[in-house]
Design brief:
Length: 168
């Protein structure tokens, strides 16, 4: 099955975007772009290195550029974004203007925290209190930019991928 449009997954760290994206790509035989990975490939740096050497705003620019590149591919794909894609106007406009289905994997904070654990690769989840503040501040942006919402606390990534076509 080909997708009619690109599908973009959004959601907080730990919502399962990369896992769902990979599983959906396998199941529906569509290309998969993981924006965090695309940024690592294009810059040759790890995410913590980009944050510490160039700063968060530079990372934000890289990630939206990578999203735009992925959207430019003619063949429809599934695209997993980083959890902070909605934090800049540039990112939000890109999501709104994309000819794509934007799917928010909505997760509660406790589930996200349990899944992320102590991952050194996520500079913005090193302090749980700060991560919780980010989580609260971002909810409205995930809600406003998405057309579809999937409960990613109740459903595992495997379950979401299994029924993915019914969400669109
Ligand atoms: C970030 C989420 C990460 C990654 C970076 C910043 C964020 O991606 O892009 O560490 O600001 O929420 P995941 O959502 O895939 O963890």
């Amino acid at each position: 099955m080909e997708f009619q449009r690109h599908v973009i997954l959004t959601g907080f760290m730990g919502s399962g975007k990369s896992t769902v994206g990979e599983l959906v790509a396998q199941k529906f035989h569509v290309p998969f772009y993981d924006i965090d990975q695309e940024v690592v490939n294009s810059t040759g740096m790890t995410i913590p290195d980009i944050f510490s050497r160039e700063g968060e705003s530079s990372f934000r620019q890289h990630e939206v550029d990578a999203l735009r590149d992925a959207l430019n591919h003619e063949r429809s794909s599934i695209i997993s974004t980083g959890g902070g894609i909605i934090t800049t106007e540039y990112g939000r406009q890109t999501l709104k203007q994309a000819n794509a289905h934007v799917v928010w994997l909505e997760v509660d904070f406790e589930t996200a925290k349990a899944r992320v654990g102590e991952d050194p690769n996520r500079p913005l989840f090193q302090d749980v209190k700060k991560a919780h503040e980010l989580f609260r501040a971002r909810q409205c942006h995930y809600r406003r930019t998405a057309r579809f919402v999937v409960d990613a606390s109740k459903n595992t990534p495997e379950e979401i991928a299994e029924h993915f076509d019914t969400y669109l």
